Predict the structure.
Amino acid sequence: MQRIHTAFRIFYLSCLLLGLALPAVGQVGLAVASGLEQEGESRVHVLTFRGAVTPVLGQYIVDGIEAAQASGASAVILQLDTPGGSVEVTKRIVQDMLASPVPIVVYVAPSAAQAGSAGTFITLAGHVAAMAPGSSIGAASPVGGQGEDVGETMEAKVKNILSADIENLAARRGEKAVEWAVAAVQEAAAATADKALELGVIDFIATDVADLAEQMDGFVVTVQGDAVTLQTAGALVQRLDLSPLQQFLNFITNPSVATILLTLGSVGLIAEIYNPGTFIPGMIGLISLLLGLYALGQLDANFAGLALVGLGILLFLAEAFTPAFGALALGGAVAFIFGSALLFDAPGLAVPWLTILSMTGLMAAFTLFAGGKALSAQRRQPITGREALIGSSATVRSAFDEQGRGTVHTAGELWNAALASGSPTPAIGERVTIEARQGYILLVRKV
């Protein structure tokens, strides 16, 4: 079983390294102030978020608004890169943004960033919307509450509601912007930064935060019904990063990380079942499973995909209790692959196939390895206890009588013995094989 522990440690380190190799989904650190090389009294707070729209983003924005209000900042710039996320969470974020007493600027950046699905609503909810060259926005068609495609009737209802919501958000930007915004919901339309600026969906295209601050200086926005002129030229830029806890929660809500956590949790439980009593694999597995389930809850995972993943895990665990070596592991691998592929239907939230196949292969390999070692241990000849005598050899010490009774010597002990049916009578000093034990009498046969 030591080999199982070693394999589990190797697997754990492999998952950890793979998780660390994934793109970072947040920054750690205290708020860092940096100037724009010009002196000025005004300041802007910059929030940087990359990842799915979850409650982490909602709390991050609320914290940013409160910090900006307390310090008298001219605006809050949210640098955003998101594939989308929960509709319910997005609605709460939009409400908080619209109620903000501080102007909020949503900046889709850096280059190649996206404001997909829910990110489109958040961008349009900003008092100012901007994008970096090479970024994109759109594809805001709805999916079900658990990520599944909705039926025709429900789809029409949801699309109509979301179309009305996004029309309200885009109304101040003109008819072309409204038309495109509705198409983003109804037809999953998307746009580049240049196209979005041409349609009036955004207000600026900026290469970085400094460029954006210069461009929007003097821009008039409406905040809580009042016209406010932004004064951002030469403003002090104060970056407010995610807290360590927010960064961790944002990291595990990455679809790939959530899948790795589920896999690691399953392997930990499998290792604990095959070799109970060590507790460490089981403890790591349970913690990983709970974190993975938390991540799936934040990402609104598809129920069908989640059920298939659960079935796959159960089949891997059942491999420990069946003599049909490999059959259940194969079924578990198939269920886990299909379940992982169906976990997230929202655009941009799918688990990469490389992650799915890698995790399934590693989990199946570990299950088969551990199962093989356990089966080998069950078939191994016992080396201690009464069972260890069976099949071993002994030396005749006293002649066998007419009833087939005598004594033999084995493992440093002298035993009474009886000849097995059909066995020739051995002489003193000859070797016999122990076939069974009946109380304190060994049943032997001449070799």
